[in-house]
Structure formats: structure tokens, C-alpha cells
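_Per-residue structure_
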Amino acid sequence: MRQCFGQTVGAEQRTAPTAAHPQNEVSRLSRNPRRTATDQQILALALPALGALVAEPLFLLADSAIVGRLGTTELAGLGIAAGILTTAVYVFIFLAYGTTSSVARLMGAGERTKAIAIGMDAAWLAAAIGLAVALVGYPLSSYAVDLVGAAGAEAGVRDAAITYLRWALPGVPAMLIVLALVGVLRGLQNTRVTLWIAVTGAVVNAVLNLLLVHGVGWGIAGSAIGTTLTQCGMAIAAIGYVVGDARRAGVRLRPHLAGVRLAGRTGVPLFIRTVAMRFLLLLTTAVAAGFGAPALAAHQVALNVWNLLALGLDALAIAGQALTGTALGAGDVQGVRDATERMVRWGIGAGVIFAGVLLVCAGVLGPLFSDDPQVRSALTGALIVAAVTQPIAGYVFVLDGVLIGAGDGRFLAWAAVAQTALYAPAAIAIGLWGPDGKAGLVWLWVAFAGGWMVVRAVVLRRRERADQWLVTGAYR
């Protein structure tokens, strides 16, 4: 029977099969076909999403490889600026995640027109937020760079970070618009379009950066300009597709104040969650900066590689968001449980594969990004730690996606705040009393990729086993 709107599922509705209920045996025997169908759904969403997600960090990896040839100073400056820029953008990741959940629930409830309308309102909100961030961020660029540790860095690192950040800020509105519209497309379970936009953008970005940095000779500023131009092109492509879909559905393009408010209100818990997590990442970068320019440069590259793998695992989380939201919108609670079980297995398996690949490649990635032997050595140590923790990361990212798709943002927000509060003293202690250089960076990564991820895994497992997040209906 379809679940009532807003009803939380009780434990009695998940009773295990017993011999006293022969129909449960039939259900057990027919579970494999459903499991196969679930796997097909997961792969149909996750594979295109994987390509799109992997393409995103390739922006910064391409920047790292190209800028790294300018010198260690420029690469370290890029590490600081990139951390600030990604924080300024992904602190508003709710524009994608919250929109995916809302659109998917409405699609599951059979309300496609409303789904597209709420997605368009989220895009208008993204444009307004992006413009505000760019206008406020430009005059505050130097303060932001100093805040994450560049004030005490070696000569030239601070100037390089400020230069990159100021040239990249004009692209922030486009980046946020893309986030919102990607959320719409994911909620509509159309991840193929997001793949096309992201892959095209990654290729164009690499070509532009190479041309502007080394061809034209604009240095680190050329890298930021190339990325800004690429992001604007991606925004235009996403707008063109979603606007066409909106017109076919009869959705008016002008913003609706109620819809914009709803998008903002539902995004507040995810905003808090992201702020806590971005603070954690910035704190980690700030501690790494205290170990010297080679360690900071190595940390920047290692963090980009880690993000690349994390976003690869997040492809399953995106499938979880879409499938969970759609199923709960339609009242299919058992479908959510079945899909979650399958996605967790996929997540851990993918983590094991990523761990093996990274362990093999850890020692050979250094020369791609730097000629400095100290950078190469520190990078290898950090990457080994990152590799060992990938199976845990796969588990964490899948459950994160499921709970986001269910609209369980309030729990995720408070959990992120608590986890950051536990991690911060450990990171600060390593920075104050830990060894310098490579050894200090390795200890930092043990706390970051190891301790923090284990805590997240324990917390998310306890929540997933409960029933409070299984709320059905078009809205959470």
C-alpha cells in the first residue's frame, strides 16, 4: 500500500521473513530479479554521473599540472586559491543536492511540471548568490588568502594565490548556476546531459589553460581566466537544455518568489553541513601550509586526487539521491531499502578498486605535477594514506547520498558540525607539535582521510539503521 504523505515508516513494517509467512518465501525467491533491476537503475544513473563528477576535479588537476610547470611557488599559490574558490562555490552545494531531492520527489509523485518549476527557481537563486559572492569576494581576496595561511608562507606564494583568486571570481555565478541545473537534471534522472556538459568543459578548460598560461604567457592568471571562460560556457549549455525542457512543460521562466524561498529554506541544513565540511578542508590546508611550500604543494595535488576519487565514489551517491527521492515520493519504502543495500555494496567494491589503482600509481604521479623531489616524496606519502581509506570512503559517500535524497538534511548538518569539532583539535595539534615536511603531512592525512572518515562511517550507519529518515510524499 502506498505510504501516507509525510508518514515515517515503523520498524514493524520491515519485519524479516519467517517460516510462518510462506508469502515471504516467495518474496525471497523473487528478490534476485528485483535486485538485478535495481543494479541496472544504479548503473544507468551512476555511470554518466561518474563521468561528469570525474570531469569536475580534472579542472583543478589540469590547472595543477600546467601551473606546476611554472614553479613550486605558483603551485603552492594555486593550492591556497583553489581551496578558497572551491569553498566559495561548494558551500552552496545544496543548490545541486537539495534540488535533486526536491525534483526527484515531485517526479516520483507524478508532478513533472512542478518539478521543473522548482528547479528553475533554484537556478535563479544560484545566480543571485553567485553574483553576491563575486562582488563581495573580489575586494576581500587578500584577506581570504591570509586567513588560510598564506600570510606566513614563502615569498611569492601569497601573490600567486591572490592573482588566481581574483581572476577566477567572475566565474562563480556561472559555477553556481551549473550546480543548480545539474541538480534539476539529476532529479529528472537525466545524468547523460550532465556528463556531456562536464566532459566538454574539462577538455575546453585544459586547452584554454595550456594556451593562456604557456602559449600567451599570462602565467597563473591565464589559468584562472581559462577556467572562468569555461565555466561560463558550461552554464550557457546547461541553461539552454533546461530552458528548452521548461518550455515544453509549460513552465514560465521568470522567478517565482515562493519557489526561490522554498529552495533557500530547504537548503539551509545542507548549507550548514557544507560550511562545516569546507571549514575542515580549509583547516587542513592551513595546517599543511605550516609544513613549508613543498608540503603545501604536495597537499594541494593530493587533495585534488582525493577529491577526484571521492567524486568518483559520489556517482553512486548521486544515484542514491535520485532513486531515494523518487521512491519516497512514490511511497516505495522497501525499494529505498533494497537500493541502499545494493549501493552500499557497490560503494565498498568501488573503494577497493580505487585503493588498488592509487597504491600502484602513488609513486609515479609526482613527476606529472612537480620537478621538486621534496614535493614528489611528500605527495607519495599522502597518496598512500588516501588509498588505504578508499573502501571506507565508498561506504560513507553512498549513505550520504541516500540520506540527502531522503531530505534528511537536518541530521546531516548536526552530524557534520560534530565531526568537524572532533577533527579540528587533532589537526591543530599535528600542526603545532607534529614533525615538519613530509612526515607532518602524512600525519595530517592520517587524521583527515582516516580518522574523520571512520567517524562519519559510524554515525551514518547508525542513522541508516533507524527509520526517522524514511518519510514519504512529494516534500520532506
